[in-house]
Structure formats: C-alpha cells, structure tokens
Amino acid sequence: MNIKEDIRPVSYIKAHAAEILAQVNESHRPVYVTQNGEAKAVLLDTESYEKMKKALGLLKLLAQGEQDIVNGKVLSQEDFFSAMDRDYNNTRP
C-alpha cells in the first residue's frame, strides 16, 4: 500500500479522472481528495461503498435493538412468534 497514491489534490483528480477511477476500482482503496491542502472528499469504488452502506445499516439496527433493551421493549421468544403467527394469519386472504 502506497499512501501517496491514496491522497490526491482535486486538480490532479480533474486531470487524471480515468486513471484514478481505475486505481480505485482495482485496489478497492479509497482516494482522499484534498483542496487547498485539506481533505475534502473520499472517492470509493461502488462495491466498497455498497458494503459500507450495508455495514452501517446493520450497525444502526444493532443500536436500535440495544436501545429497545435499555427501554424494556422486549418480548419472550414465545410471545414474539405468537404475535408473528397472529399477524401473518390476519394478513392472508
């Protein structure tokens, strides 16, 4: 891994867009885009981006579940499946 290849000024990105896209898609490493010496954006390949979105979604669900436990919003397994059966039977034609 060469960190110098992963940090590029916006002017370089503009001039070498196809090369940078090929690098990102091949390496699956993000490229950090700088402007006036400050990091301003991150360029990711689509596969890595989709994986990251899925991981964040799972983390959000876990956090919501933990909050439900803290707030006492829990059911026993038996009560949960009974409610699921009841709801399923009420929605069938």
UniProtKB/TrEMBL annotation:
The record, for Pfam families, names:
PhdYeFM_antitox (PF02604)
What domain of life is recorded for the organism? Bacteria
Q: Which InterPro entries match?
A: Antitoxin_Phd/YefM, phD/YefM_antitoxin, YefM-like_sf
This molecule's function is given as: Antitoxin component of a type II toxin-antitoxin (TA) system.
What family, per the record?
Belongs to the phD/YefM antitoxin family.
Which named protein is this? Antitoxin
